[in-house]
Amino acid sequence: MSDNSVLIVDPVSSGKLYPRVLQRYGIEPILLDTDHALVSEFRTAPTPGALGFAADLGNSYEALLRMCTERSVAYVIAGSEPGVELAERLRADIPGCPGGETVLPQRRWDKQYMFEALAAAGVPTLTTRAVPAGHTAVPAEAVAELRAGRKLVVKPARGAASVGVRLVETPGQLTEAVTAITDNAGLFGGASAALIQEMYPGPRVEYAVDTFSTPAGHELVCVTVYDKWVSESGDFIYEKGRWLDHDDPIVRELAEYARRVLDALGMRIGPAHMEIMSGPLGHRLIDFGARAHGIGHPQHTHVLTGTSQIHRESEYIAELFGMRAPAERGGGYVLSRHGALVLLSVEREARYLGGAEAELADLPGVQEVRMAAEPGKTYPATKSMMDSVALGLVFVVADSADELDFRCTEVRKRAGDFFTTD
């Protein structure tokens, strides 16, 4: 057994998977809840067995550092997006703890600094303008672009799961979207700047690229492609994420672009989740998280490839602690089957009738049904990935891409039968 310990900050979403994997190596992690995860509703109750940053440590960073020293914390994991900033700060302040570059660490969690860092490093990016928190005046250049017939995307500088991301087409919509972000508490409770970004021109495809970084370099763990549509209110609705084969021609291009992003953001240790748009402009980053892919995605990646960001990070920690011999790394990943994660949604306010789990589980190819909707409860029109997670997710596999698409379409159709607008 190692004398070192691992701290997981906000072990929610996919972060809940870490303890079980770490325990395979005899590592019992220390769990820490913060109010950021509670305010954002990433969790609604205390994590079993976790320390509370507020309840147990009085929200004192000095007390947290003392606890880390007393319990020999030598590695810190960001268990979800709410925990990234605190995890990054701890990595810099705990002697010998692996971490990213300490100069301007905000570039890894605040999108305003993020896109500025990409531009400074010469990484192709979308034109982005910022409106500071507490301000509502929009840039004249953005208004002029809308009047010229262009579309823009407004998003919070601090956020996750597409919450607050809006497509706007008029100056009025622009002001409304910006004010909703800058004039209110953000997803994690604090104020956030609003970013106004050029709309990637069509035809365009969005990919999720998941990596793991060590001092030896950046490793590609998996790539998925999103199917989504824009609702009447201008919100982006995700239908499914489909895993791509490593030998798909686009994967090599995305991996090279992703490495440039990771270098520009000073990512040196741990998993990263990127959302990258591709099309006539080439590859452009639209979102980034210095943590593992959320919504339980890594457990499905493990089913399809035999590994995941969480398994890879746990393995790396065991190697650092001398509890596992370092292994040689391959050049990529191999899919055992075609797979997709279907995200449920409702186009308008609807009441869940209940009983979808059993019927969906019997459909061909369905490996897991994770219904979060409660029978009899009414849900608003889906506006973000968080809204979809509040309804449910379905993991589907097949032997061919065509068969997978057919099965996913059937899942969404049958799931819709269990929601009523009456």
TrEMBL record:
Origin, by domain of life?
Answer: Bacteria
* Keywords assigned: ATP-binding, Ligase, Nucleotide-binding
Q: Which InterPro entries match?
A: ATP-dep_AA_Ligase, ATP-grasp
Residues covered by the ATP-grasp domain: 115-318
Q: Does the keyword Cell wall biogenesis/degradation apply?
A: no
**Pfam family, any one:** ATP-grasp_4
The answer to whether UniProt assigns keyword Cell cycle to this entry is no
Q: Indicate what this protein is called per its UniProt record.
A: ATP-grasp domain-containing protein
